[in-house]
Each structure stands twice: as C-alpha cells, then as structure tokens.
Amino acid sequence: MATELEELVGFIAHQNPQIRKLATENLVPYSTEQPSIFKTQELLPVKHLKFLIRDHPEIAEHALTILINLTVDQSVLKFVATDDKFLGILLGNLVDPAEANANLLAMLLANMAKWDGLKSIATRKQDSPSALQSNELVLNQLLDLFVKGADGTYNKHADFDYLAYVLADLSKHPEVRQFFINKQDYDGVVPLNKIRVFTEHKSDIRRKGVASTIKNVAFDVPAHAAFLDEDQVNILPYLLLPITGNEEYDDEDTTGMLPDLQLLPPDKQRDPDHNIVQTHVETLTLLTTTREGRELMRSIKVYPIIRETHLRVDNEGVREACERLVNVLMADEAEPGTEGAAADNDNDDDDDDRIVEV
C-alpha cells in the first residue's frame, strides 16, 4: 500500500492545477529530507517535474526547487542533464525576459553543468530574443544574460548570478575554453573580457564563479599571450586588485606596479572569501608557465602583493598558493639557450613542470 508521501508525489501530475500546486509546494522539503520518494518507477516523478517547469509560475517554482535539490544525486542529474528536449525548454525559458523563475532555472542549469556531457552546449544554438542583443550561440546568450543581470536591465525577476557557476563548470572543457578567448563576430568582443570586471562585484556567487572560470581558461597555455596583453584581455589588474588590501609599499615597489594598483583608497580591502583569493593566486601561478609571464609579473612587482597576502590572510590554502607562486617568481632564471634555462615548451618530459588540472 502506498504511503501518504508516495500518494502526494503522485499528485504532481494531477490534471487539476490547484492540486499540482499543493502537491509540489508540500513536497519541497522532502526533496532534501527524503529524496528517495522521487526515485520510484524509474524516476517517473522526476519526469513529471520536468514537465512542470512550463506550468503556472508558482507550480514551476516548486518544481524547479525540487529538481535543484534532487540533482545533487548523480542518477537524477544524469536523467535530467541527458534530456536534450528538456535542456532546450530550460534554455528557451531562461532567455525569456518575462520569465519569473529565471534565477531558479539558472541554478538548475548550474547543477546540470556538472554533467560532463553538457559540454555539447558549446555548439548549441537557439533563437535569441531581440531584447538580449545576442546571437544564436547559446554560450553567448548565457554570457549576455549574465552581464545584463548584474544591473537588472533584462529581467526584473532575475540577476542571473548563478550563471557564473554554469560558466565555471563549462570552462573545464577545452572546447569551451576556446570560446572564452576568441573574439565573437556579432559584437567584436572576447567573451573573457565581458566577465573579468566581476572579480570585484558585491555578489559572492559572481566573484567565485568568475574567478573559477578565469582560472579554468588559463589552463590553455597558448592563450597566455592574450591574457597578459594590455590590448587584448589584460587580465592581471582583475586578478591583482581583489587580492590587494590597503597595505603600504615602498616607493620602488609602488611605482613599478600596474597603474590600477598605485592609487588605491586607504579603505581598500582584499576579497573576504579565502577561496576566491586562493583561486586568483593559483591563476597567477598558471600564468607563470611561460617565461614571458614570469618576467612580466616580476617587472610589475607582483611579489610584494603576494608577500602581503601571505602575511595577512590567515588561511592555509591561500598561504600554500602564495608560497608556490613566490617560489616561481623568486627563482633564478638562466638566459634562454643556456644550461639550466627554464623550459617553456609543452613537450618537456619533466612532470614537475607540467600544469596539472585538479
């Protein structure tokens, strides 16, 4: 005999919208407390919930919340993320400027992006609303939603902050990294340049997701020249400012620093999230893979900033990251072509010199 909860789960597919609403609303807490009740009959309840994202906004809100909670389970995640038709519906709803549940859709997409197969989104296309001023490539639409969401100019119901996590997870894949560093024809902008400004944003979610995205893209060593070029991505100010506090440096160090770091206000604070600070330092370390990157960081006095970060941030992960970067920056470097010169080519057999993604 079915339990009361199992009967309630059955009501999410009821023809009466009021009954569907009551069922989904009352089932929300059970999606974290007893998720197994949704995994019966080969995940039939989850299948029903996927249909409900197109229902009345209040019903869709509860259905999405339940799906967000359930997709922490790998079996449910696979079932949802591999449904191409459902993904198309989700993405279509997400770009609708009147979508009341856009933030929840972004949160669900962030969970789905943890499924490796979602990297196929790199080539996916759909019609773009004229209000978005994007093109047919879904990645560009997600990026433009993310940018417009920062000031609420696209959808009054959404800030799209959770798209930062979508971009971060997708950027783990080489084909998506290539998207971030290639200028887009429809607006002439390198995608990475659209998100770099959010390394100093009030939203923790935005800062964290953007920091991880930049780090992931930095695993593409051939792109480092563009990363460091002032006329292309020019990423260093956006990595160094968040990890810089109100410390005072001697005149020689100060005058050697990037202009953006020379006249900081006395109340300047480094990012309070230790994980974000650690991520930025690790990105800087990735950018020392080439000799050009190492020499540039030495010339713009990155070392004093890292020294103060190590001294003032009481966090083991941050300190270890700082120590690794300092070891690179302070190491003696022989002249190119001489014995002991640092190897910069990708075919070096020394495993210790290779970038390892973790």
UniProtKB/TrEMBL annotation:
Family: Belongs to the HGH1 family.
Protein name: Protein HGH1 homolog
Positions of the Protein HGH1 N-terminal domain: 94-277
Stretches for region Disordered: 333-358
Cross-referenced SUPFAM superfamilies: ARM repeat
Domain Protein HGH1 C-terminal: 283-336
Acidic residues composition bias: residue spans: 345-358
